[in-house]
Write a structure and sequence with these properties.
alpha+beta, globular
Length: 464
């Protein structure tokens, strides 16, 4: 007789016997970077040769669509409908990656081959996001095998190939295919856990608002001996402008950028006791950096942050004895749904003017990825937490939104789906840089967690 325990045992065996590792190695070997035009053909190849045959074998009807925006990667949709009266889940993932950065990986590693070293599986996309959506599909396969080819619920899949370019075209695609993608809930995986050892559910993501600060004073540099001390240095002036935005310990001084009523009570409550950790290879957590009076979890999951991404004046690669003609900084704000990004630009302009920096321009301000959040106590969130805790035998932490950005807002806006993000990675995985890797411990828990949820979706007791 098919059982839940049997489904989890099948998923565990698939992982423990090396089958998942072999599967992931094949996915990593496709250099599907969306950030290098030379690899454009690999984006379609990933969907055509790796994903489409797999999901069709699992009983899905699959279609590969061109991106609505020219120059961006294709989008695969697939559906497996058993009974319209049963719940319908939307599964999301992305098969594109950032650049390989081949020359920056440590000796013995290469981005386009999976390399095992202890509990680390190295390779581009192992954590972001090939390994994560592959775990979910492998878990589904185990449940199908245990139930004799049936699920007991309906599943739809959307897999994009432009997430690493801001998910360009996805909003337009979902808006145009609402009937195709409509579902009761989105359950998907991307991003990191709060700690490698603690399974996590995120109910949204922080957004990104980006802008440039520019101060241009003259057409060319002037002699540092003849003019230093007499004419304004744009680099010095721009650094003071930035210092007026954020103090020396990371506290944001443009207070109109922040949630007016502080961290909401429901957010503070769900984050009580929540750890934040990246394990080895991650950056340090500096307790006196950022907003005073907040816990580390509240700072990263319940508050906004200001970051200077890049800053330049003159020619750092070949300095000359001159006062530079201009200075530029690219900055962004990571923000939660508790603030309206439409006010960020006007608030910054007022702030700079009031502090004597009317000459500093704000260029190209705008949202690069919108914030999203499903209430942490939503029935689908609590259902997923209970299912995962039953499968893993340990506590599952809920956070109101992950610290990074994902296109959850697209699905909430056009489909009205609640969001249940179940990350299988961790903060120290080095995604977007050299030596990206997946930890085998969280990965194994991930396939078990999804096998349990896929099984439970076919049983009674799912949310209405």
């Amino acid at each position: 007789m098919p059982t839940r325990e049997g489904a989890l045992s099948r998923a565990a065996a698939f992982f423990d016997e090396g089958h998942f590792k072999s599967l992931l190695a094949g996915l990593v070997a496709i250099p599907s970077t969306a950030q290098d035009p030379a690899y454009e053909a690999e984006l379609a190849r990933y969907l055509e040769t790796a994903i489409r045959p797999w999901v069709e074998r699992l009983g899905f009807t699959a279609t590969i669509h061109p991106n609505p925006l020219p120059g961006f990667g294709p989008i695969l949709t697939a559906e497996r409908i058993e009974d319209p009266a049963r719940p319908t889940v939307l599964l999301y993932g992305h098969g594109d990656t950032v650049r390989g950065l081949d020359e920056q990986w440590r000796p013995g590693l290469t981005p386009w081959a999976l390399t095992e070293d202890g509990d680390h599986w190295y390779g581009r996309g192992t954590a972001d996001n090939k390994g994560q959506h592959a775990l979910n599909l492998a878990a589904l396969e185990a449940v199908l095998a245990e139930r004799g080819g049936r699920l007991g619920f309906n599943l739809k899949l959307v897999l994009e190939m432009a997430e690493e370019r801001g998910s360009r075209g996805l909003r337009e695609f979902v808006a145009a295919h609402r009937d195709l993608l409509t579902a009761d809930v989105l359950i998907a995986s991307d991003g990191p856990r709060v700690d490698p050892a603690l399974p996590t559910i995120a109910t949204g993501t922080r957004g990104i608002f980006q802008f440039d600060l520019v101060l241009k004073l003259r057409e060319g540099g002037v002699h540092s001996g003849h003019w230093g001390g007499l004419t304004t240095d744009p680099a010095i002036r721009l650094t003071h402008a930035i210092a007026s935005i954020c103090d020396a310990r990371g506290k944001i001084l443009v207070r109109d950028w922040l949630p007016r009523n502080g961290v909401p009570a429901e957010v503070r409550g769900v984050l009580a006791g929540c750890p934040v950790g990246g394990a080895e290879g991650a950056a340090t957590i500096d307790p006196d950096w950022g907003e005073p009076g907040l816990t580390a979890a509240e700072k990263i999951y319940g508050w906004n942050s200001f970051i200077v991404l890049a800053m330049v004046s003159g020619r750092p690669e070949a300095p000359v004895n001159a006062v530079a003609p201009d200075a530029r900084a690219t900055c962004h704000i990571r923000y939660t749904v508790d603030t309206d990004p439409a006010g960020f630009g006007p608030a910054l302009r007022r702030h700079l003017d009031e502090h004597g920096f009317a000459d500093v321009e704000i260029r190209e301000p705008g949202v690069r990825m919108a914030a999203s959040r499903t209430p942490p106590d939503h029935p689908w969130v609590r259902w997923a937490q209970a299912s995962m805790e039953r499968s893993l035998g340990k506590r599952v932490q809920i956070i109101p939104n992950s610290s990074g950005g994902l296109p959850g807002d697209v699905f909430m806006d056009h489909l009205g789906t609640p969001l249940v993000w179940v990350p299988h990675s961790y903060n120290g995985c080095k995604q977007h840089g050299p030596d990206e890797h997946l930890l085998t411990g969280p990965a194994r828990e991930g396939i078990l967690a999804f096998a349990g949820m896929w099984w439970d979706l076919g049983e009674a007791g799912t949310p209405g």
